[in-house]
Amino acid sequence: MSFDVQAIRAQFPILAQQINGNPLVYLDNGATTQKPDAVIDAISNFYRHDNSNVHRGAHTLSDRATSAFEQARVAVQGLLNAGSSDEIIWTKGTTESVNLVAFSWGQANLKPGDRVLVSAMEHHANIVPWQLVCAKTGAEVVPIPVTDAGELDLEALDGLLDERVKFVSIVHVSNALGTVNPVAEIIARAHRVGALVMVDGAQAVAHFDLDMQALDCDFYTFSGHKLFGPTGIGALYGKMALLEAMPPFMGGGEMIETVSFEQTTFNRVPYKFEPGTPNIAGAVGLAAAITWFNGLDRAAMMAHEQAVLDYAVECAHNYPGLTLIGQADQRAGVLSFVLDGSHPHDVGTLLDQQGVAVRTGSHCAMPIMSRLGVSGTVRASFALYNTREDVDALFAALDKVKLFLF
Ligand code: PMP
């Protein structure tokens, strides 16, 4: 197999359109990825032919919906190489997964004097839930410092890792800088002091092979919409023994075994964490995205992505008046920058007028912005369907932005 990027682009109907009179150049994949026909059709087919509630009805449609829903769980297990599909819990996405672990595990286990380490480059979704839980439990959230290059300071991490640290929650790939963190190493070091580790894989899942068993990760999470799947569906992986020991996060139907006013008992994992009607069509769509993704030549895809990102970084280095924010050795999917003397939002608006879609601002990661001395950046974020031509279009559009602004 090889990687025919034009054939891949042809499977994404949204990409073939004009924006403000120019061909769309979609470079906002860190926010959300576009969806191939295979995913759009799977969702449409589900609603046309199989829609029903899961785990409930004694009828054919409910059987079909339940089986599609549970097969989707197996697809996620395969994607993450988890030991069992029971270790996969459906959530709305990364944000809900972090809240689930922070509130369920954190409220049951954290006490005054305990510490939760997060890095200074986290998305707010991996900071705020821990702050909320620490405020309730008396534990403390402590940031792991980041270097000027936007890399995790591993020496500082070693200095912080002691018996007070009960949990480390760390981003795999920074959405603001593209930094790839050495998560296997971090997990090993944290385990040495007895701390558990959660990895936020929101920005990693579309770029790398993942293997929970090799990583020895305690919890891992991602959002379906960053992997060419629909919004509103994501998954939390957790080691079975940990999940079994954790109390429910939310109560309702399906998560119980028996309910009475004297005593309520809970369903087994994963259902204990899945009250109410889940996002069934979302799971079906995500399974279609995973099947589609698995059909690609992964090594060729990664080589293509690396080549496009390397080219973008090279263009950025040669571009007068552009400052790259984040210069980590290991980077994936993100080019974050400021144009000297301009506001990122103005740059983004002027790029949009030329059909180039980027994100601007603090990228829900205010602490890393202030650490690196900027209020925000322009972020071009790449997916497997982006090309060198997209990079050329970005820099040609930046030329016009500069003419307009200066
Ligand atoms: N963490 C990271 C690194 C992210 O990039 C995002 C999405 N921008 C999130 C968490 C939150 O994901 P979601 O909004 O899908 O819950």
What is the 3D shape? globular
Q: How many structural domains does the protein architecture include?
A: 2
Class computed from helices, strands and strand pairing: alpha/beta
Radius of gyration equals 22 Å
The CATH class of the largest domain is Alpha Beta
CATH superfamily heading of the largest domain: Type I PLP-dependent aspartate aminotransferase-like (Major domain)
Mean pLDDT: 97
Uncertain residue ranges: none
* Measured distance between first and last alpha carbons: 47 Å
CATH architecture assignment name of the largest domain: 3-Layer(aba) Sandwich
**What's the helix count?**
14
EC number: 2.8.1.7
Catalytic activity: (sulfur carrier)-H + L-cysteine = (sulfur carrier)-SH + L-alanine
Pfam family, one: Aminotran_5
Function: Catalyzes the removal of elemental sulfur and selenium atoms from L-cysteine, L-cystine, L-selenocysteine, and L-selenocystine to produce L-alanine.
Which secondary structure elements does this structure contain, and how are they paired or packed?
Layout: H1 5-9, E1 18-19, E2 22-23, E3 25-26, H2 37-50, H3 60-80, E4 88-91, H4 94-109, E5 115-119, H5 128-137, E6 140-144, H6 154-160, E7 165-171, H7 183-192, E8 196-200, H8 212-215, E9 219-223, E10 234-238, H9 240-245, E11 256-258, E12 265-266, H10 280-294, H11 298-317, E13 322-324, E14 334-339, H12 344-352, E15 356-357, E16 359-361, H13 366-371, E17 377-381, H14 388-405
Parallel strand pairs: 3-15, 5-6, 5-7, 7-8, 8-9
Antiparallel strand pairs: 1-2, 4-10, 9-10, 11-12, 13-14, 14-17, 16-17
Helix pairs in contact: 2-10, 3-10, 4-5, 11-14
